[in-house]
């Protein structure tokens, strides 16, 4: 039985996240990731054939990690689900500020136009699942029309995203008090 790889893909992606959070997506190069991970450049190229593959893997791993908790949150009873999903955005971003900065930059900053078809398809499927979950939540809340659906998206996505962006965009941690602020705002937007 062979020994486990010393520089596995997750370790390399962790180094890429740190670089992106510190200096933006342009800082994520094959050589920089190798240096940050303390790995030979061959280890990076062995797992990611080029920078585009590295960037797409970084984005997709990050969005998947975020969405896992989001999908769990929207399974609760309707109003609780909306609150839990919005809280998840803030709490996950507080707990994972470097990864949250990756998501705040958007996939365009990570070269989505050059991603493989499989990577773009993976992201499209993930985004469709979020849309489907939120549309279902809107229906469970009795807000199936366009205005109701828009209100649910505002409460669950746009509002917590704006709160997170305000702090992380300035390089500050998201304060714990914002979890309560978002919770109250979501209840106010969706009650009744």
Task: Give a short overview.
By secondary structure, this protein is mainly α. It has helices at 9-23, 30-37, 41-47, 51-73, 78-95, 97-105, 117-140, 146-168, 177-190.
- Return residue spans where pLDDT drops below 50 for at least 5 consecutive residues: none
Number of helices: 9
Name the helix and strand elements from N-terminus to C-terminus, one letter apiece: HHHHHHHHH
Distance between the termini: 61 Å
Structural class: mainly alpha
- The proportion of residues in beta strands is under 5%
Radius of gyration: 18 Å
How many β-strand runs?
Answer: 0
The biggest sheet amounts to: none
Compute the average pLDDT: 94
Helix percent reads over 70%
Shape, please?
elongated
Search tags:
mainly alpha, 9 helices, 0% strand
Task: Outline the structure in words.
There is one protein chain. Helix content is 73%, strand content 0%. It contains nine helices and no strands. α1 (9-23) packs across α6, α5 packs antiparallel against α9 (177-190) and α6 (97-105) crosses α8. It starts with 8 loop residues before the first helix and ends with a helix. The model has no long low-confidence stretch (mean pLDDT 94).
């Amino acid at each position: 039985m062979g020994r486990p790889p010393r520089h596995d893909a997750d370790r390399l992606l962790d180094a890429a996240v740190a670089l992106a959070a510190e200096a933006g997506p342009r800082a994520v190069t094959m050589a920089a990731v190798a240096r940050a991970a303390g790995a030979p450049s061959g280890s990076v190229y062995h797992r990611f054939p080029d920078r585009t593959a590295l960037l797409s893997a970084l984005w997709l791993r990050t969005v998947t990690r975020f969405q896992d908790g989001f999908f769990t949150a929207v399974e609760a009873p309707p109003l609780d689900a909306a609150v839990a999903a919005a809280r998840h955005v803030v709490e996950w971003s507080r707990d994972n500020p470097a990864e949250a900065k990756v998501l705040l930059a958007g996939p365009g900053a990570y070269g989505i136009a050059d991603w493989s078809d499989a990577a773009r398809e993976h992201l499209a499927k993930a985004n469709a699942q979020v849309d489907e979950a939120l549309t279902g939540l809107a229906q469970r809340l009795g807000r199936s029309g366009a205005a109701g659906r828009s209100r649910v998206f505002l409460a669950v996505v746009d509002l917590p995203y704006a709160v997170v962006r305000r702090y992380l965009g300035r390089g500050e941690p998201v304060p714990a008090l914002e979890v309560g602020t978002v919770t109250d705002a979501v209840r106010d937007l969706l009650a009744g």
